C-alpha cells in the first residue's frame, strides 16, 4: 500500500476530538454528586439527573463500555432492561476521561478530580524527578504514592463526615499503591468471588444510615484484552457480570441507589501492519524520541531535549490522518486532561511533549519494548465513543 506524500496529509483537527464531559458528566463527577446529596461538605451535585439517596453503591466493571453493552442485549438482559430508566430517565452514559484507561479512570472515580489534577494521566508516563517511565497501574518503578497523588479521596472525606464507607474488591488489591491513593477511606473488605462481593457490598450498604460502598470486577476487561470483545470468552463474562448486578440489586437495603459503571470501553485491533504501527520498526517515528509512554491508542511521546517541535511535526505528518496529534500545551488547552487551567504543576511534566490519540481502528505498538501489550487483541485509551462512553446504570430501592 502506497502512503500519501507528507504534503498531501491533512491532519485531524484537534477540535474534532470528542472531549470527555468533565464537570458535567464524567467519571470524576460521579462520587462528588453522590456524596453532596449525603451532606458531605465541599461537594456539589454536578450530574443533575442523579436523585439523592442515603445509601450509594458504585459497581465498576472494568472494560464494559457503553457501546459494547448496547450491542449485546441478549448477553446482558438485566442491565439492558435498566438503561431507559437510568440517569433520571435519560438513559445516557457518562464519559471516562482521557486517556480511557484503568489507572487514570480509577483515580478519577476515587478522587473526584480530572487527570490534570490527580496526576495519573496515562498507563505509563514519565516521572519528571527521575526521567523514567512510571507504570501507574503496576506502580513500577516504586514511587511514593502520597507524593505522586496527594489529594484526599472522596471516600476519605465521606468517612470523615460520618458516612459509612467501604470498598469490596479482590484481596489482592487491598494494599496496592493505586488503591491507597485512589480508593482508600473507611474499610477495605476483600472477597475472591464475584458472588461474595455482591453479598458483602449489600451488607455494607445497609451498615449505616448513610453509606458509600464501592465494588469492582475485572475479568470483562481481562477477556477483552486477551480474546477480544468479539469473542465467546468476552460474551461469557458479560453474561456472568449481568447476573452479578442482578444479585446485588435484589439485595439493596431501603433508601439505596446502585450505580453500575466502567472505566473505559474497548475495541479489537486487527493484526496487520496497517492497523498495528510498530514504533520499534519505524525510524521516522523513533527519530528524536527519548521515551515512548502511554499505550497503543493513547501515546505520550517524550522528545530528546530540543527535538520537541520536530517530533510533533513528524508524528503529525506520519499519523495525522489516523490520530489526533497534539503538543502538550495544545492538548492541555483543548481540555483533553481536564478543564484548561486545571493542570497541576507537578503533573505538567508527566504529560508527553507530544500526545497521539487514535481516531481510526489502529494502535501504535512497540513489539520489542512492550511485547505483552503489543500482543493484546482488545485495546483502549483514546477519545472515540467506543472507548470514552461508559454506562451509568441505576437501580433504586
What is the rounded distance between the termini? 58 Å
User: Which term fits the overall shape?
Assistant: globular
Proportion of beta-strand residues: 15-25%
Strand order of the largest sheet: 6-5-7-1-8-18
Count of helix runs: 17
Task: Characterize the main sheet.
Answer: 6 strands, mixed
Helix content: 25-40%
Rg on CA atoms, Å: 20 Å
Q: What value does the average pLDDT take?
A: 96
Counting DSSP E segments of at least 2 residues, the number of strands comes to 18
Task: Outline the low-pLDDT stretches.
Answer: 1-7
Judged by helices, strands and strand pairing, the structural class is alpha/beta
Description:
This protein is α/β, with parallel strands linked by helices. The protein has helices spanning 30-37, 66-70, 77-82, 102-111, 115-118, 145-148, 154-160, 177-182, 194-205, 219-227, 232-249, 283-286, 308-319, 328-334, 345-348, 371-374, 385-388; strands spanning 55-61, 94-95, 124-126, 133-135, 164-169, 187-190, 211-217, 256-261, 267-268, 276-278, 289-295, 298-303, 323-327, 354-358, 363-365, 378-379, 389-390, 393-396. Strands 6-5-7-1-8-18 form a six-stranded mixed beta sheet, with helices on both faces. Helix 9 (194-205) packs parallel to helix 11 and helix 10 packs antiparallel against helix 11.
